[in-house]
Amino acid sequence: PLEKMAHGGHDVEMDEATRTKLDEMIETLDRAKTLHTLKPKEAEALYKSIFTDACEGEELNKVKEQSICKLGELYADQQRVEDIQKLMVQIRPFFNSIPKAKTAKIVRTLIDLVAKVPGGQQAQLQLCIDTIEWCKTEKRTFLRHRVQSKLANMYFEAKDFTAALALVGELLREVKKLDDKPLLVEIHLVESRTYHQIRNLARSKAALTSARTTANAIYCPPLLQALIDAQSGTLHAEEKDYKTAYSYFFEAFEAQKSAEHPGAITNLKHMLLCKIMTDAADEVPLMLDGKLALKFAGAELDVMREIAKSYQDRNLEKFIKAQDKYKDQLESDPVTKFHLKNLHDTLLQQNLCRLVEPFSTVQMSHVAKLIDLPVPVVESTLSQMILDKKFKGILDAGQGALIAYQDTPDNSTYETGIEVIENMGKVVDSLYTRAAHLS
User: Which of 125, 179, 302, 378 could in theory staple to 368 by disulfide, Cβ–Cβ 3.0 to 4.6 A?
Assistant: First the structure.
């Protein structure tokens, strides 16, 4: 007899045998989840028994999908990358019985799980490439485009920007024809981030504008919108519009924090960086001690506290020590690294101006000793300051000295004289014109 059974919020017609099978599979899945950590081998066997079962049906397939993802997690926890690759091949026949969107979700989940394994980046790349080849053979365009988008993002993270841009270009040509807007947003975002890393800011902005325009035409998931906001903040920071950048980073942080996304702490760091760059370093400790940042406390934020303190004190030595102490945290974030380099240059110039202020002529070696930096660094910084007209003086290379010019008060006599001569010229021209009319 057929019964109507409420499952997952829908009424599904199901015969007695199928319902019994479904209950068994759910029970097996629950048992496997219980044994997941305690007895992984038994859990593995149970997960496999679920998705290799020959029975088919919408509700049964949902349980199979869960078992595949849980088995992938188990392999990732045990750092068994090869087993995840084998699992991807093993479940390919199952993809024929589920919707394309579900297939894409499972494939991307398994690829993401490989990334969690230390040193699994190369295996993850290979897994993507193998899956793309399979998609081409099976003519699964929908899935291929999504895996290629994932691969482009992985090339970006691996700093292979040439490969990323080549793949993005190929993808855009195909996806625009299909008008797959959600995927277009992701591709344009990867394109924008890649161009930003190779310092092509004009094309980075153009790609971001395309991503934002496409996102406005569809429902954009909060986390994807957060990535767009974070990239907008990054590009505004490049233009030194730190106040606007701060508001974008805040929007991205709020969205990622509510979803407990690991990228939230990066946006919080960028918010603190914007405060420092706008001479509001005194607000950084207040933000760090507030409820906004309490759950993210750690080395990632300690570095921003120390940098803010050294910037407030205009202490270059403390600033350099903080950078050395938290080198790992800074190296992993190219945006923070880039702006802190600019901040370092600003602090260095301020300190040099303060040190050479009492002298009319001073040896470069003495300045280097006072600031505790190598002579070539001091010499190149001072020469740049002179060229940028931030310091009045010259470098005497022969003597190895800096000769400072005194600020002379502006004398308006010459300017006034030139103005009088110009006005007299206009008067004479006017008289000459009138005389010509009279004659």
Answer: 378
- Dihedral angle sign, alpha carbons of residues 376, 382, 384, 386: negative
The structure tokens listed for 395 are 């470098």
Q: What is the pLDDT of residue 11?
A: 40
CA neighbor of 343 nearest in space, from 376, 365, 371, 310 = 310
Q: Which amino acid is at 403?
A: I
Mean pLDDT, consecutive 10-residue stretches, the chain (439 aa), reads: 41 69 88 87 89 83 90 89 89 86 88 83 87 89 90 91 94 91 94 94 95 93 94 94 94 92 90 90 88 82 89 84 84 85 84 84 86 85 85 84 76 84 92 84
> CA 310, CA 321: separation in Å to the nearest integer?
10
Q: Which residues of 238-260 are buried (b: 16+ CB within 10 A; e: fewer)?
A: beeebeebbebbbbbbbbbbeee
Residue matched to tokens 């303190």: 309
Give the Cα separation of 168 and 381 in Å (integer).
40
pLDDT of residue 14: 61
Residue the block writes with tokens 């699992």: 87
Q: In this structure, what token pair is assigned to residue 227?
A: 């990535």
Give pLDDT, residue 249.
95
Q: How far is CA 24 from the centre of its chain?
A: 45
First to last CA, the chain: 120
For tokens 């990732």, name the residue.
76
**E strand or H helix at 14:** strand 10-15
d(CA 14, CA 33): 26
